Amino acid sequence: MKKILIINGPNLNLLGVREKSIYGDQDFVSYFESLKIKYPDVELEYFQSNVEGFIIDKIHAVGFDIDGIVLNAGAYTHTSVAIGDAIAAVKSSVIEVHISNVYAREEFRHKSYLAKNCKGVLCGFGLDGYRLAIEALI
Ligand code: DQA
Q: Which stretches does DSSP call E strand in 67-132?
């Protein structure tokens, strides 16, 4: 059975509440439940943190054991050399996901410190991006 961890970074605990016109009105926990039903043959886990170091700790903790990580690092994508290095350090494939099309938004969102160490990047498909990333990993 494939093991995949979804990691959401800062402010993504507020999905369904925050900036609905950009991120939609569904909360992530209910979306995650629908993913678990859709992929009964995948061991899916979910982790969210607003703290950069906790995201790095989690990547280290699972990144030598599991098949893949689906990572939406939120705004840390555009700032964090350290999360980029953590991705490079581990063995698991990491797919970078963004709900919104970051290239259609402010210029500071066009830079990712993570992308070059990821297997691929998905953005602009809403929450469906997480499912597409799972498809890519399995
Ligand atoms: C985001 C895009 C980031 O620029 C932003 O800071 C987020 C969410 C997305 O999923 O579209 O928090 O990663």
A: 68-72, 93-98, 120-123
Q: Which residue has the higher pLDDT, 93 or 18?
A: 93
Catalytic residue numbers read: 23, 98
Ligand 1 pocket check for 100: Cβ under 6 Å: yes
Sequence-distant (6+) residues with CB within 8 A of 47 are 5, 6, 7, 8, 58
Question: Closest Cα to atom 9, ligand 1: which residue?
Answer: 98
**To which CATH superfamily is domain 2-137 assigned?**
Dehydroquinase, class II (3.40.50.9100)
3-state secondary structure of 79: coil
Sequence letter at residue 114: L
